[in-house]
Design goal:
This is Biopolymer transporter ExbD. The longest helix has 15 residues, at 20-34. The strands form two sheets. Strands 1, 3, 4, 5, 6 and 7 form a six-stranded mixed sheet that branches. Strands 2-8 form a two-stranded parallel ribbon. The chain is elongated. It contains four helices and eight strands. The chain has 156 residues and is of the alpha/beta class. The protein has a domain at 44-152: Nucleotidyltransferase, domain 5, CATH 3.30.420.270.
Length: 156
């Protein structure tokens, strides 16, 4: 019968790293799929009001956002503390809204233009005069599909 030797001199084999690139690419792919990029930097303070009856927008790619609120502290020296309109990444006035909507329509296919929505993200402390002026400017360019952003009211 054979004899088995027990040598204490054997070394442990090195750890295989052949699966490491697969794991790295799986993680990279996961984060690429789940991460959403912010389309614009807010320069105004927008705390949307609460509402009880909400509807979720179907196609967010057809939504153009108009933000209205008090400028953030780093912009208050230049723009003051009165509520301002922000279109994309710049402060604007109501006269700039027509050009903004026209440029947003130009970026879309012609078949999608009737389904475009203009979403107003208005701070809850903003006076209605500026909202009314925005709605008048939107009416002049026939952007009649308007949405008001709000958060769900918590029932207590």
């Amino acid at each position: 019968m054979g004899k088995f030797r027990k040598d204490g001199k054997k070394e442990t084999p090195p750890i295989s790293t052949s699966a490491l690139p697969d794991i790295v690419f799986m993680l990279l792919f996961f984060f690429m799929v789940t991460t959403s990029m912010r389309e614009q930097d807010l320069k105004v303070k927008v705390r949307v009001p609460q509402a009880t009856e909400l509807a979720k927008l179907e196609k967010k790619s057809l939504v153009s956002y108009i933000n209205v609120g008090e400028p953030l502290p780093q912009f208050q020296k230049k723009f003051g503390t009165e509520p301002r309109i922000q279109l994309n990444d710049v402060f604007a006035s109501t006269s700039d809204i027509a050009e903004y909507i026209t440029s947003e329509r130009a970026q879309r296919e012609e078949a999608e233009v009737p389904f475009m929505v203009t979403s107003l993200k208005v701070d809850e402390n903003t006076k209605m005069k500026i909202v009314s002026d925005i709605k008048q400017a939107l009416r002049r360019v026939s952007a009649l599909n308007i949405n008001y952003s709000a958060k769900k009211k918590v029932q207590r």
